[in-house]
């Protein structure tokens, strides 16, 4: 499972792979809840869950309870990309709860920890050949 975190103040984002043993801490959390940054290696940080996607790439919506998949008639928002006024389409959507099928958790940093992000995660150096 991956956690994608973003800092609204700086506009920077990062991605962290969660260790298998720590994934159990996240199971059952819903979109909109605040979680501790410990599973992602961000000790002292608080993260708010803003979205999820499963192993097939299906996005989640806050209004679908549980971990189930559903085909909803959508007119906008997550899971539908179309700007024409009045357009609606039936799309496959996953529920708002983290499960074993969840592959990515999108989060926003609500509370910063004692160490700055630049210190915790240094950018990757490009190889020059």
Oligomer: single chain
Determine the number of helices (DSSP H or I, runs of at least 4 residues).
Answer: 2
Structural class: mainly beta
Low-confidence runs of at least 5 consecutive residues:
none
What would the average pLDDT be, to the nearest integer? 87
Proportion of residues in β-strands: 25-35%
Strand order of the largest sheet: 2-1-7-4-3
Choose one word for the global shape.
globular
Tell me the layout of helices and strands.
Elements: E1 2-6, E2 13-17, H1 23-26, E3 34-36, E4 46-54, E5 69-74, E6 89-94, E7 102-111, H2 117-120
Parallel strand pairs: 1-7
Antiparallel strand pairs: 1-2, 3-4, 4-7, 5-6
Summarize the structure.
The protein has 129 residues and is mainly β.
